Amino acid sequence: MSSSFLGNQTLSQASLADAVESAAGIVDRQLLADKRHGDLTDLLKVQSHKLPTASGLNDYDYPSITDTRAGLVSLPELSTVKRVPLPPELVEQFGHMQCNCMMGLFPEISRAWLSIDSDIFVWNYEHGGDLAYFDGLNETILSAGLVKPKPGIFQPHIHYLLCLTTPVDIVLLGVSFSSPHLDPITDPGFGEMHLLPDPLFTVPTDNTYILSISGTESGRIFMTGKDGCLYELAYQAEDGWFSRRCRKINHSTSSLSFLVPSFLNFSFAEDDPLIQISIDESRHILYTRSEKGTIQVFDLGEDGQGMSRVAAITQTTILQNAALVARTIDRSNFKPIIHIAAVTRNESTNVHLIAVTHTGVRLYFTTCYFGETRSRPSMLSLLHVRLPPGFSAISTQQRPTNSHMAHYKRGTLLLAASQSEDNDLLWALSPDTFPFQSQLMETTASAPIDGRTWAICEVPLPLYGLGVPSDPLGMPTIDPPLVVTQHMEPVRRFVLLTAQGSHLMNKLRPVDQLRQLLLNNNGPDSEEVKAFFKLHRADQACATCLILACSKLAVDKQVADWAARAFFLYGGEAQYSIGGNPPPSNIGPTFHGNTSTIGTSGFASPGPGQTSFSGFTTPAPGMHPNQMSTPITSGFGQQPQQQQQQQQQQSTFTSGLAHEMMFSGKHDGLCLYVGRIVRPLWDYRVVNTFTVQGKQGQKEIIGSRLSSEDLGWFTEQLSDLNDFIQAHSQFTIPVMTDSMTPGFTPRGTLPRPDGAMDEQARRRYQAELQTQEKISTQQMEQLIERMCEVLGLWKIVCDHQFHVVAGELTQDQQNQLRSMTFKNFVVHGKEICCALISCLIKRYLGDNATTDAISSKLREVCPSLYSTEDAVASKANELLQSAKITQNKYERDRLLREALLMYKQIPQQLDLPVVCGQLSSVRYYDGIVDLCLTAASKRDPQGLALHHYKNGAQPEDTQGWQAFSLRMDCYRCITEMLSYLLSTSMSHPQAPSVPRSPGPPPAPDPHRLTNTEAEQYTEQVFKLCLKSEDEVFHVALYEWLIAENLTEKLLEVQSPFLETYLKQTANYQPDNLDTLDLLWKYYEKTRNFTAAARIQAKLAERRGTDIPLPQRLEYLSRAIMCAKSSSMRTSSANEGEFLHELEEKMEVARIQLQVLEMVSKLPSHHTEDSISRLNSELMDITTLYGEFAEPYGLAECKLAIVHCAGHYDPTLVESLWQDIVDKEFEHSLASAPQTRMATISKKLVILGKLYGATERYFPLAFLVKYLEKKSCEYSFDSKWVFTTLQQIGVSMPKLQEVYDRLFKSKDPYWQAMRKPLHLLTVLRCLVESYTDAPNTVPAYERRAFTTTCLDNVAAYLVELQSIVGGDTTVRTLIAEFKGVQAKLERLQC
């Protein structure tokens, strides 16, 4: 037995999903290989309808099994099941026959019939019982036929119609059964048969002699007449305007023939009775055969409801055409034609009809031009002449002769040939033994029949399990050879009816032939069993062996054991060969299109004229020598890139020599069998969509395409195969080493130029190949187990109303399910399977039912889809549902705690958001926190997330990132719960909402949280969260607080993790200002003022436009405050120096702000860049002066910069003040004098208070002189200048001194302005203002100042009096000074 078939070695090349997908690829290739069988036209070598061909002249057309290299002595083709004599009651009736006797078969209901005169008898030909009869006719019965009724016309209990014709009437009788729904395989009799006593319809024959009757699947009834016409018996429920309920229509003359009596419907044509009808239900074509061999074609239309005569061909024409094709054959062999049979779409695309002659010659016809498979019939053209056995030049086989009856269906031809008047010889011709050939090859068998055959038919038995649907693309599909479907197709049974009774014979399948060989030889140890493997090729024979070996029937136990032994005995070994070509096939050419691609070959199968990778094509099934199997590459199980590299290595290794690596027949046979079991499912959708009428109108529902019984059959087949694999797991191989890994090529073992290889290298290659086969077999085992589980789950869902469970899926899942094939469902449908399980469990929970039973069933059927953890989760869900409806608080809390404990046992398998949502619905918020923290810990047991976080979340740390993401997914459930509670607590309790429907207001929701409750839960959960020692969770919690803008609450947190989080976040996200703000606020709150000050200073000095300049000043201001607070608590030189630096920066920053404000007032198109620069960083005073104040002429700013720098330049200072004054005058030019004076005074007062204390930067004498000149120029009030200076804080004595000195300087400006008395006028006002308010001068200075004023006034009077010819102004001024003098003298007293 094999040492490389199975074992306990675990898959190491790929995960379970990869193994299943890899095995699914093998199944794909196997199904593709099984589809590569030839169409009938390919086998007959017909290229066009205009180029007919012939076959049967070569030995390999009918190869003799005994002459082949297989060495079989005989291979049983037919098996006589039993012979059932006629019922004794019928034998007696023959004695009463007067006119006519006829016999026939109704295989649809397993009945035979006999008519004697006007009576008809029907009985079960399987056992001769259930005899029924009808004697209600008065005329001799001429023909009988069983047809299906049209739907919707008769009562449901009428399952068939029995149509009887006499010379006078055509009668329709109803047929019913007592048990019509029994399995036709186990009870083919359909129960007891009943003929209704009263005819349903009776129609006159109009003297037409009806010879045969046939019906269609749709219920149409056709009849052939002795007059050579084709008739139809049309019936309907009620009479119409132009039609009766039942009428006879002549399709050979006119569509209105039913209106004309038959004696007027004669033709002048030669009388040629129609004796046979054959209907092609797949194409809706009807054929007729006449007594003289004329074949007619009638088109029933696309829907099978029409009728038109298309073509006819006489036997003479057929004879001539056949003679032209087979010129060496005697023409007598081509006539007469004894049988015609329609060929359905499933058997051939281009061959539509077969006619059989009395010598067994088969004539193949078509009704359409080649390539027009969808067109309606338009002709009848001969395609091929197939001669029977015995026509080859050296053939010794006997030829069929005197055949009088035939039957053809699905490739098998039965001929009843007369040996004598009382005996027939039955011939059987079938291609089943030689599948996948490039031409038609058939076996022949013969068996004697007692009596003359009256009728031959095949018993219609359905496929086991599910029938193969049409092609997914809607194209015609050709049925594969029997070897592909034999596991699901019952043995074909034929019934021959003679005067002695019924003969039941089976046409054996290859599996039946193998069974018979095993029984005949008492086991597999025989040359005949070995020859069977040679004949069918090892992989095909192994697949056939598995059908027997996997049988669980008690009667098959011994055969199953023998088949298993044969499987390992003749299944061969994986082989590696270099050089040479494979031995030739046993018999004839093979069909190139079937080059097998089982295994793991990455190469496409070669077509005709192509060669495989090894330099030769793989021999076809049926003709291969032992142990020739599937070629593979040594890159099995690898990724495509690895396979490509391996192929390159192999190409280099071979150096042009042909080499091939092949798996054993056991491996390929297993793959074949798996593919054939699931063939009806693999590439087809698993669901259908139905439209039903509901309360809301029409809606679509999803239904299973497979019934529960179908699923049970497929599950049983796969489970039996899986059991077989498990039972033979002792056949192991050595443990794989480095030298035997897939893709390994031994070094130093290049073949010699002649292709030879040393023994050691050959052994190593053999070991490598066995390892690859081992892995492939294990992958196939994984696929089988997965399919068993998926089918088992599917059956459970079907048993629970599939459409209801599927209706609970999400819309996306439903759409995915609609388009999913069985292959996709198995390979990629785990998510959908889990979703179906969830919906199924929800149904139980929704009904408040316990889940123990369904959980146990799911665990038993699909453990990988529904694990122990899933069962625990289902039980926890059940407890949770119970808690929802429990009113007792203590009981409710107990159930919640138990559910939480169960959830905590399986946190890694839970869908946390769903579970947390369920816990939230019962307000078990503490349980959510507990569960999520537990899940995070279990999903990251090594703490990789914390290490990843603390090390800067490096992108190359993929494991750490995955662990961190897993934890964050868990924490997200907690933060989402907190967000819900927070939003609920802040929502307005009386917030109105629009009603959903008119009517009274809805009742308040008792489960809705109030604001107070939500607030309490929020605080409770938040406190519980803060107690956690999970640092990564604290990170998630802090980030949630920041996202919710709850920074104040964050700063209130007292946790050792907060400072670490803020510092780490600031380090990893240096551009995140919010984090830095939080950090200094945290330090302020914890009274770490030094750290806060340094962060604030860093923020102030930070470059970038994200912090505007005012914000920088605020940071500096706060930093100074924190630095001062720190120095108050602890004083050090460093802190003092830091404070001094901050203050200096603050002073410069204020100037920068002033510059910014000034620049911002300038036209924007000149200042955008400057504004951006001023906002982006703190600058020194040199930069501010040279790059901003000076270019933009900002006198005030320049003055501030000079003052800040301590730079003294009198000329510069005076020029700056002059610029300031000039700009103010310029800006106020459009205003009224009073307004101008007020505006300018306000500006001067602001600046004067800034710099007035420092005479170096407040040149009083210059300002007085310049302002007075401006005042004189603009005729301002005489008091305006000194009043403004007094507001700045200049003392009265100082003003009087400056003005006095200015007057005595005798500046010619005043003369030029023609206001020589301007200063004297101002001085009079100044002194007078003193006399009016002496308190403006301190008391201790008042006497001295008064004396000074008196002296100065006297001097001013002398000056005025010295003016020659003084005018009125002078006199007035003198008078005013004297008045002031008098006031001063009074003050001095």
Automatic annotation (TrEMBL):
<keyword id="KW-0597">Phosphoprotein</keyword>
<dbReference type="Pfam" id="PF03177">
    <property type="entry name" value="Nucleoporin_C"/>
</dbReference>
<feature type="compositionally biased region" description="Polar residues">
    <location>
        <begin position="626"/>
        <end position="637"/>
    </location>
</feature>
<dbReference type="InterPro" id="IPR042533">
    <property type="entry name" value="Nucleoporin_Nup155_C_1"/>
</dbReference>
<dbReference type="GO" id="GO:0006405">
    <property type="term" value="P:RNA export from nucleus"/>
</dbReference>
<keyword id="KW-0813">Transport</keyword>
<keyword id="KW-0539">Nucleus</keyword>
<comment type="function">
    <text>Essential component of nuclear pore complex. Could be essessential for embryogenesis. Nucleoporins may be involved both in binding and translocating proteins during nucleocytoplasmic transport.</text>
</comment>
<feature type="region of interest" description="Disordered">
    <location>
        <begin position="989"/>
        <end position="1009"/>
    </location>
</feature>
<feature type="compositionally biased region" description="Polar residues">
    <location>
        <begin position="592"/>
        <end position="617"/>
    </location>
</feature>
<keyword id="KW-1015">Disulfide bond</keyword>
<dbReference type="Pfam" id="PF08801">
    <property type="entry name" value="Nucleoporin_N"/>
</dbReference>
<keyword id="KW-0509">mRNA transport</keyword>
<keyword id="KW-0325">Glycoprotein</keyword>
<dbReference type="GO" id="GO:0044611">
    <property type="term" value="C:nuclear pore inner ring"/>
</dbReference>
<dbReference type="InterPro" id="IPR007187">
    <property type="entry name" value="Nucleoporin_Nup133/Nup155_C"/>
</dbReference>
<feature type="compositionally biased region" description="Pro residues">
    <location>
        <begin position="995"/>
        <end position="1004"/>
    </location>
</feature>
<dbReference type="GO" id="GO:0051028">
    <property type="term" value="P:mRNA transport"/>
</dbReference>
<dbReference type="GO" id="GO:0031965">
    <property type="term" value="C:nuclear membrane"/>
</dbReference>
<dbReference type="InterPro" id="IPR014908">
    <property type="entry name" value="Nucleoporin_Nup133/Nup155_N"/>
</dbReference>
<feature type="domain" description="Nucleoporin Nup133/Nup155-like N-terminal">
    <location>
        <begin position="75"/>
        <end position="503"/>
    </location>
</feature>
<comment type="similarity">
    <text>Belongs to the non-repetitive/WGA-negative nucleoporin family.</text>
</comment>
<dbReference type="InterPro" id="IPR042537">
    <property type="entry name" value="Nucleoporin_Nup155_C_2"/>
</dbReference>
<dbReference type="GO" id="GO:0036228">
    <property type="term" value="P:protein localization to nuclear inner membrane"/>
</dbReference>
<dbReference type="GO" id="GO:0006606">
    <property type="term" value="P:protein import into nucleus"/>
</dbReference>
<feature type="region of interest" description="Disordered">
    <location>
        <begin position="581"/>
        <end position="654"/>
    </location>
</feature>
<protein>
    <recommendedName>
        <fullName>Nuclear pore complex protein Nup155</fullName>
    </recommendedName>
</protein>
<dbReference type="GO" id="GO:0017056">
    <property type="term" value="F:structural constituent of nuclear pore"/>
</dbReference>
<feature type="compositionally biased region" description="Low complexity">
    <location>
        <begin position="638"/>
        <end position="650"/>
    </location>
</feature>
<keyword id="KW-0906">Nuclear pore complex</keyword>
<feature type="domain" description="Nucleoporin Nup133/Nup155-like C-terminal">
    <location>
        <begin position="664"/>
        <end position="1361"/>
    </location>
</feature>
<keyword id="KW-0811">Translocation</keyword>
<dbReference type="GO" id="GO:0000972">
    <property type="term" value="P:transcription-dependent tethering of RNA polymerase II gene DNA at nuclear periphery"/>
</dbReference>
<keyword id="KW-0472">Membrane</keyword>
<dbReference type="InterPro" id="IPR004870">
    <property type="entry name" value="Nucleoporin_Nup155"/>
</dbReference>
<keyword id="KW-0653">Protein transport</keyword>
<dbReference type="InterPro" id="IPR042538">
    <property type="entry name" value="Nucleoporin_Nup155_C_3"/>
</dbReference>
